[in-house]
Each structure stands twice: as C-alpha cells, then as structure tokens.
Design brief:
Chain lengths: ~130, ~240
C-alpha cells in the first residue's frame, strides 16, 4: 500500500474514532449508536496497520485489490448502520403512536370530566365514598 | 353505560358523520354507546359528531385508519365494554346489519363476526381490486381452514377478549386486514362471516386506491409470511 495512502487511511480512522468519542462525551450521541462507528474505525485501523491481514482478507472474499476490501467494509458498515436506524425508527414509531393515542384518550376523559357529574369515573368514585 | 360500543373511525367526514350516527341510533337506540375517533380531521368532523351526541376522541394529528381503530379498542378496553362493533364513517355500511353482526358474538358462537359484502350479494369491485381480494381471501381461507370471502371489511363485531388482544402492539396498524385475521386465528379466536349490505361510495377514494395497492400487496404478503413464522400469540 503506498505510504501516503496508508497515512490518509490511518488518519481517517483516528479522526472518526476521536469525533465519535467526543460526540458521546458531549452527550450528542448515545453510546448504543457509537458502537458501529467505533468498531468499524478500529477494524479499519487494524487492517491498514496489519497489511498482511488485509491481503489475506482480500484473497478470502475475492476482491481485486486491498483498497477494494476497505471500500467493501465501508459499504457493509453503512448498511449495518442503516439497519440499526431502521430498527430504532420502527420502535419510535410505535412509541409515538401509543403516546398520541394516550393523549387522545386522556383529552376525551378530561372533556367528560368537565361535563358536570356525567360519565366521569372520578366523580362517580367520590360520590360513592 | 351500555355493554356495546359502536366504534366509528373518521377522517374528514363532516358531511356524512352526523347522518351515520343518526342512522345507527335509529337501529340501536340507547342499547349501545357510540364513539367517534376523529383522526386529525381538518374539517368539522369532531363538531358534527359531538352535535349528534356521540363520544368523540380526537387524535392530535392524522395517524391512519389502523391507529384510529386501535384507539377505539383502547377506549373500549379502558371503559370495560363487553362487545364492540366497528363501521365506517362514510355511510358505506348499513347500520341495520348491526344486530345480525352482533348476534353470534353475544351468543358466544364466535369471538369475531366479519361483515362480508360478497356473501349472497352481487357486489363486484373493480378488476384489479377483485384480483387482490381473491388472492388474500384465498390465503386466509387456506391458513384458517375456514372460507373467508371479505378480508378488507371494516364492518366487524367482536368481544372483549378480541378488544384486549387488539390493544397490544401486535395489532398491524397499517392496513389491518388479511394478516390480522390470520393473527386472530393463530391466537385461537373463532371467526364467522355474516352477510352485510354495503353502499357504493363513488365520491370518496378508497384507502386502497392509487399506487397504494402495490405497497399493500407487498406489505400484506410479507406480514402474512412473518405471522406464519412467529409462534402463536397467546390469548388473554
């Protein structure tokens, strides 16, 4: 691997790692979303430092060049992070739906309570005691 | 408070909702309560429903048909209703069929009664929709080992066990149709189909119109497939 290419790749990995750690430190990024960023930057760093491992992996997956392997790793990382976000968005969609439904039901309950002593569980239980 | 709740999900139906509620009252009188789920309407659906004496629950924004009926189920569960009948707010469903729909559920012969517009009727939807309906009713009939002719009917009646089941996150809020029926079957609920009359509504676009059938077909096939892969969901 050409020296300048190696330096650029190593600096990029260090920068991604450092920026991710800093974002977590500032609480702008949750730890659960930093795992893939940190793991990928460490993996890429190791593969650049240990060039023989990168060559072996390249041969294993049938890529043409070691740099192609690094690109493939980047693409896989982007796919994994997109899946992680899709899972989280699905969960948030359910949570928002449930909250909105609870909001609607509570507002209806309050409206019923505003009607004097009619259909309001609070007043019924108060009058029973 | 009655044992029966009539649930009407409504989105921008200020022109029809008052008449629908009055027609329902003409059939059920005071033997059932009526709740309208106003799904973020931009018109006066809420005001019209309130004027005719229905209970109104309003979403803060439009969330879709599935979320609206699930809000109704949660309302029914919270209030302790024993039975629920749901029908559309546009006047397509004939309220005179409500007693026939409720009868098998109240008698304990079924947990859910589905109003079918195809049983003993000459109703014929457009060709593309008919192909989809035949496909999904065939799949549901095969899986449930029970002839089901109308998998997209919003005219249904069920008991409190089904109400409770539908209030969970298992309920498919986008297009709760064939996959929901399969889910109910796998959870051990008994279904029956009752012939009902539905009126044509040429003014309004169906929620299955336009480009949506493509997504609908994909979603339904995927949902049915994963439902069959999951372990049977327990009831109660």
């Amino acid at each position: 691997m050409p020296f300048n290419q190696k330096i650029f790749a190593l600096l990029t990995c260090c920068m991604v790692f450092a920026v991710t750690i800093n974002l977590v430190r500032k609480r702008k990024l949750h730890e659960e979303y930093s795992v893939l960023w940190l793991a990928t930057s460490i993996l890429m760093f190791v593969l650049v430092i240990r060039y023989d491992w990168l060559v072996a992996l390249t041969s294993l997956i049938g890529a043409g060049l070691p740099t192609s392997t690094l690109f493939i790793c980047s693409i896989i990382f982007l796919m994994l992070i997109a899946v992680q976000f899709s899972i989280k968005i699905s969960s948030l969609t359910d949570q928002v739906k449930n909250l909105a439904q609870e909001n609607a039901l509570l507002r209806a309950e309050i409206t019923e309570c505003k009607l004097p002593y009619r259909n309001c569980e609070f007043f019924k239980s108060s009058s029973d005691s | 408070m009655s044992d029966v709740l009539i649930l009407i999900p409504a989105y921008n139906e200020e022109r029809a909702i008052g008449r629908v509620i009055e027609n329902i009252r003409g059939v059920v009188g005071t033997t059932a309560d009526i709740v309208v789920i106003n799904d973020g309407s931009s018109d006066n659906t809420s005001g019209e429903a309130d004027r005719t004496g229905a209970i109104v629950v309003s979403h803060p924004y439009n969330m879709g048909y599935g979320a609206a009926i699930q809000t109704g189920y949660k309302y029914a569960r919270n209030k302790g209703y024993l039975y629920l009948v749901q029908l559309d707010a546009d006047g397509q469903h004939d309220p005179s069929c409500i007693p026939a729909l409720l009868a098998p559920v109240v008698a304990g012969k079924a947990d859910i009664a589905i109003g079918s517009r195809f049983l003993g009727s000459s109703y014929r939807p457009p060709f593309i929709r008919r192909v989809g309906m035949v496909l999904f009713s065939g799949i549901v009939s095969l899986v449930t080992k029970n002839a089901v002719s109308d998998t997209t009917s919003g005219f249904q009646a069920f008991n409190r066990d089904v109400i409770s089941f539908f209030t969970s996150d298992l309920f498919p809020v986008d297009y709760p149709d064939a996959d929901m029926l399969i889910m109910l079957h796998r959870a051990g609920f008994d279904m029956v189909e009752i012939p009902v009359k539905m009126f044509e509504n040429s003014e309004k676009k169906s929620m299955h119109s336009g480009i949506k059938p493509l997504y609908y077909t994909f979603k339904m096939l995927l949902s049915i497939f994963v439902t069959l892969l999951r372990s049977r969901e327990k009831t109660g």
